[in-house]
């Protein structure tokens, strides 16, 4: 009987001693965490995407609470999380800017480009395909469509569509930039979500070569830059680029683009309307209108030809008498 009882007692006693030792050690060597670190960590979304530049949410929480790191670096959390952290830290923060989202600057899908070779290897990735002549597409600047960005996205905001190129759901995008870093072609860029007129092309080939590689390329013709009423477009290395800080989203560039490389995804239509009782016929609005859609002689009531108006609002900004209003309607 003792041969059974004694080992059990010895084992139990050993366990008790070890438990007491561990309890003592946990108190003796406890690393105290600043309560604010825990509060900030609880306010963060827990995505651990690393977009803030720190090793996960816990690293960012420590940097904020202990080292005074900027509280606006959490892209997935956005203004809501920054607001919570500002309350915890007793700070004020300005998050009035628009949300930044990832956008694929390519429309060269399988119907618009061709394959220059067939790849027989297993499980191809965009990164691995770059080792084979820069990819299998006729356009060497285009999306390869093997989904490296899809795998990198922590928000499941990216899919490879049925035509073979990456497509991003901007409402789901958490602005972590992981896809931007992952893309070996560097054709995913960040853009303000409220700016929906975009050059969806990354080709730097000259016009003729670009057309041979894709049916919807930017050919660097410069028409968009010439007609932009606010000078928001520049053509460099045969590729048009829109300055989102200047762009007023009138969509004129998209309308005039001969290859349809500029996409206008604006959800609203704006039209200027002149308030007759306030108009003094100064012609200032007519002189500034890029579409010449405002009619009327000096000292006469002016009228807007809505069929020509692009809603650029230049007339609205120019009028000193409040005689112009901008009507906004949903785009059908």
Describe the structure.
By secondary structure, this protein is of the alpha+beta class. It has helices at 2-28, 35-43, 56-67, 78-89, 126-129, 148-152, 178-182, 207-213, 223-227, 252-256, 284-288, 314-318; strands at residues 100-104, 158-160, 166-168, 188-192, 197-199, 233-236, 239-242, 262-264, 268-274, 294-295, 303-304, 324-330. It is built from 12 helices and 12 strands. It has a two-stranded antiparallel ribbon. It has a two-stranded antiparallel sheet with strand order 2-3. Strands 5-8 form a two-stranded antiparallel sheet. Helix 2 packs across helix 3 (56-67) and helix 2 (35-43) packs antiparallel against helix 4 (78-89). The protein starts with a helix and ends with a strand. The model has no long low-confidence stretch (mean pLDDT 90).
Defining traits:
single chain, 332 residues, alpha+beta, 3-methyladenine DNA Glycosylase II, Chain A, domain 3, Alpha-Beta Plaits, 5 domains, two-stranded antiparallel sheet, 30% helix, 14% strand
Could you tell me the CATH topology label of the largest domain.
Alpha-Beta Plaits
Beta-strand level of the residues, as a percent range? Answer: 5-15%
Biggest sheet layout: 2 strands, antiparallel
Number of contiguous helices: 12
Q: What's the arrangement of strands in the largest beta sheet? A: 1-4
N→C terminal distance: 90 Å
Could you say which structural class the secondary elements and strand pairing correspond to?
alpha+beta
How many beta-strand segments? Answer: 12
Report the top-level CATH class of the largest domain.
Alpha Beta
